[in-house]
Amino acid sequence: MKKLSSSEVRQMFLDFFKERGHTIMPSASLIPVDDPSLLWINSGVATMKKYFDGSVVPKNPRMTSSQKSIRTNDIENVGKTARHQTLFEMLGNFSVGDYFKKQAIDWAFELLTSDKYFGWDKDKLYMTVYPDDEDAKKDWIAAGVDPSHLIDMEDNFWDVGQGPSGPDTEIFYDRGAKYDDLAPDDPENYPGGENERYLEVWNIVFSQFNHKPDDTYEPLPRKNIDTGMGLERVVSIFQDAPTNFETDLFLPIIHKTAELSDGKKYGANANDDVSFKIIADHARAITFAINDGAIPSNVGRGYVIRRLIRRAIVAGRDLGIQDNFLYKLVPVVGEIMKSHYPDVLENADYIQKVVQSEEKRFNDTLSDGLDLLNDVMDKVKQSDSKQMSGADAFKLYDTYGFPFELTQEYLADAGLSVDEAGFKAEMQKQKDRARNAREDGGAMGLQRDLLVDIKTPSKYVGYTQLTVDNAKLEDIIFDEKIVDSVKAGKAELIFDKTPFYAEMGGQVADQGIIEDQAGNLVAKVVDVQHAPNGQNLHTVELEAPMKKGASYQLIVDKHFHSKVEKNHTATHLLDQSLRNILGGHTQQAGSLVEPTYLRFDFNHFGSVTKEDLAKVEQLVNEQIFAELPVKTIETDPQTGKEMGAVAVFSDKYGKKVRVVSAGDFSVEFCGGDHVKNTNEIGLFKIISESGVGAGVRRIEAVTSEEAYQYLSDQEGLLKQVAGELKTSQIKDVPNKVSQLQAQVKELQQKQESLEAKIAGQQANNVFENVKDVNGVKIITGIIKDSGMAQLRQLADTWRTKQLSDILVLGTNSKDKANLIAAVSDDQVKAGFKAGDLIKAIASNINGGGGGRPNMSQAGGTNPAGLNDAMAAAVDWVQNQK
């Protein structure tokens, strides 16, 4: 048997099919694109569906790939079985209407048995086939397979309902008698049975029938080949590994985990081995998922990542790992996979930040959560039902961050269960509480119900005009009723066409006025929102009566609108600048475009350095000064993506989209309003940057006249400072501040030196006041107008000169008091602890403290209690005997 590394196996497979006319397809992102049926890419063929269903014609009908995949339907089995993985690689070769059964079988047998390639002994190979598939049997025998190694299996028919289907053949490798885990006569001890000896390595699907709605099958005019070979399984054969985990795909992660553990070794203990395997598997999965853009959260893919991270952390605790550790495994994963996935190692710093942030959040509450879980489990074990209540499970989830599935898994391992229905009921109660807490919830609900029935068409024309002279008033809503006319107060109006932008995509609604045909003011537009059926719904304050069917002039506030446009285009420049400076992982997480400022939220773990923030700001301004034309085209989403347009993937796009580009610098999907040229923005200035949640940062910025005003205000403050510093020019302020800081530092040093001398003089008297309390010598005293630094210095002097067994000193400064207690090493061994002493006397100064057994300190707000503290110290020593 050859000894091949995982990268060599992967490359050999791809090269084999490349030599036979196949195009090597890159491994697609784990996050599916244009496939809402999948949470993750879960197989090699998942990325080929568009070719097999005919929606896209491939440039080459022969393709091969090594596709990273994630399956999460049995996470609880990972680590407990030999081959369950959440992340795995599927090697595959595909034919779309080109070669078929005989060619696929011949190539499979050649790859597996030729000395040039895998070089496996053909006598160790067994193939299962569909009983009626005589062609497959003949083709295997013709290729060189002993007929006794062909096994009929009724399950060997790939069928997922209507559409393409067909028989398949599975290839098994006999690993030998040393892997026998069943008796020779066990009914499962055969290729295809549930055993460890015969390992399935390859599945070849012959898609040759169309499964019709009437459950009949007709031959497909163009037959296809779809195959899947698990890389991890094949590597375990080449490396003679008992399980997938003893291969070079996992062992480096396991060995690194062992280094971080509390002296644990892989292979020494079965329970520890489960923890090692869980960590190794989950470290791979989260590294690849985060690299592809997924972020830990409480929903969807994010919830899966969060669950994997937390499951790995708990496994780490079982190995004695108390600190954050999972992030340290990310570069190990990157090194293992760098031959085929170099981007993982390139993005390791970012991935580590995401993982470490999530680890820290969970570790902060994990110990308390585990204590509660163990306490509840002890009670459940004593109960008749052996079931944890839904309320307890919800508390673990809501307070301590335990995913429900993790609690379920823990209980199952102990032979217990959890009330899932009760947990769901608690979740619903929480949702109801949140819904009831929303302001004006009832009124909004009534309004939505009312508006659902209004289907009058309305057209937005504000992209090209900000005034409409003849807009017909189609609908009036007043006091939650549809009316024909309205005289005063607030009303909601729908027109057949409007220049008023309805709030959407972070851009606030337009404001303006409505006039009658004579030019008289009839209403002020204070808000515009989208009605349920898509119309722009204008909230107005009436100045005169309005009537359904009448025509009005709609006039947008041009100055307000222009300022919003500037800020909106600036957010696009900011979005791209963040990607350029911080990395491609940054994605928009929300925005607000007001006339006076803009707010932009984005995904990024860790703080943004001042240097990077300055670079982002400079890059935005460079695009403004470059006078880039801003153009908008309307097209379909696919064409937009081919143009390189950045999409907010949480948004759903219709058949037509607007693509906004600022020169070649920024291209985005956007339905908002924008300037015609970046020079209209004038100036861009960041005024703040902060974190607003786990992995989400926020930038607030201003443009145009607000940016000028901000800088003018900053200049005014600098001039004020310059005046206070008595400097004639602003440029001299930094140098003057540095000089003053140096002077302050020098004065502080002189003051500390003087205080030390005074304290030393006082200490000479204090050190002479030695009391004998039951054979223990103690010095107590108060040093006036000093500080904790001086007390520590005096304690060091006391210890060096061995002046007594115990020292207690106090000092005051204005309305604050400090205490220090020191105990000689001999008395520490005798049972006297400085920490216990300081806690016993600190209440006299309304304070608290602590420290080491030989020295502790405390602070408080009652200097008048220092004398009482000294007396209490003597009493404490007296009571210890």
Report on this structure.
It is built from 24 helices and 35 strands. The protein has 881 residues and is α+β, with helices and mostly antiparallel strands. It folds into five domains: 241 residues, BirA Bifunctional Protein, domain 2 (2-Layer Sandwich), CATH 3.30.930.10; 184 residues; 113 residues, Elongation Factor Tu (Ef-tu), domain 3 (Beta Barrel); 149 residues, Threonyl-tRNA Synthetase, Chain A, domain 2 (2-Layer Sandwich), CATH 3.30.980; 114 residues, Roll (Diaminopimelate Epimerase, Chain A, domain 1), CATH 3.10.310. The strands form eight sheets. Strands 1, 2, 3, 4, 5, 6, 7, 8 and 9 form a nine-stranded mixed sheet that branches. Strands 13-16-20-19-18-22 form a six-stranded antiparallel barrel. A six-stranded mixed sheet has the order 30-31-32-33-35-34, with helices on both faces. A hairpin with a 2-residue loop joins β34 and β35. α6 crosses α7, α7 packs across α11 and α8 packs across α11. The radius of gyration is 37 Å and the shape is globular. The termini are far apart. GO terms for molecular function: alanine-tRNA ligase activity. Its EC number is 6.1.1.7. It is found in: Cytoplasm. InterPro entries: aa-tRNA-synth_II/BPL/LPL, Ala-tRNA-lgiase_IIc, Ala-tRNA-ligase_IIc_anticod-bd, Ala-tRNA-synth_IIc_core, Ala-tRNA-synth_IIc_N, Ala-tRNA_ligase, Ala_tRNA_ligase_euk/bac, DHHA1_dom.
Task: Considering the chains and any ligands shown, give keywords for the structure.
aminoacyl-trna synthetase; alpha+beta; 5 domains; nucleotide-binding; EC 6.1.1.7; cytoplasm; Elongation Factor Tu (Ef-tu), domain 3; BirA Bifunctional Protein, domain 2; 24 helices; 881 residues; 6-stranded antiparallel beta barrel; globular; 9-stranded mixed β-sheet
